[in-house]
Protein: RNA polymerase sigma factor
Amino acid sequence: MNELEATIALKNGDEDAFRNLFDLYYDRLVAYIATYTHDKMSSEDIVQQAFIDLWNAKEKLQDCKSPKSYLYTIAYNRFIDSINTDKRRNNLLDVVYENALRDRIDDDIEILEKRVEKMNQIIQTLPPKCRKTLEMNKINGLKYHEIAEIMGVSVKTVESQMSVAFKKIRKGFEKENLYLLLVNFLKKH
Structure:
């Protein structure tokens, strides 16, 4: 089966055609992405996700065109997404650590630990979906639309859950610095 035949068959959901294209391009794509990542394992993860994306978007393939450039584009975009995610995490951690160090000078460790314990207690009292939404956003770094997709709810529902969580946290710490508490909570988890 040549590439064009495999493309047409793939559009019709043929798993053998998908396997054929996978076998044809997998090693090449891993080598291509590895020139950017310098890490074989992360390159393999990116390429595997690119093939999942290809399968999910198989209807978009053009019958008379090889899927090669489409696959390379998907893999490269997945690489860029991974870079952006890593940068966001690293930037957030840098800010969190810097602020935590600054705040730690001013706060007694014992008081700080009590605040973190209080934060944990408040979070544990949140309704399960509300707590899960908060953790997915603040600990895992997921965006509202990603959380909505995972949980099978609307973005408005996620926004509502986050609003409930923050109201309860603010109420529990009415006289304290909420940002400091969130920073320290995130550091411990």
Notes: The first helix runs from residue 3 to 11.
